[in-house]
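Bug #77: duplicate submission created two jobs. Keeping one. Sequence:
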Amino acid sequence: MTETLDYDATGLLCPLPVLRANRKLRELAIGGLLTVRATDPAAEADFPAFCRQTGHELVSATREGEVLVFVIRKR
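Kept job's structure:
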């Protein structure tokens, strides 16, 4: 079974959503999934860039109304 965590970064502004998500990823074993919800418009570009730079996999990036939802697999 894959370990999963959720992090609510709604209301936080750049760079906090990515920085705090990075802390949460440290709690996961390799292969674990982190779901992040964010409202900062910059997060739309920040999370893909973060994953490219760190080697984590961006499994999905979707929108639920005003909330951006990112699912990241720890590598």
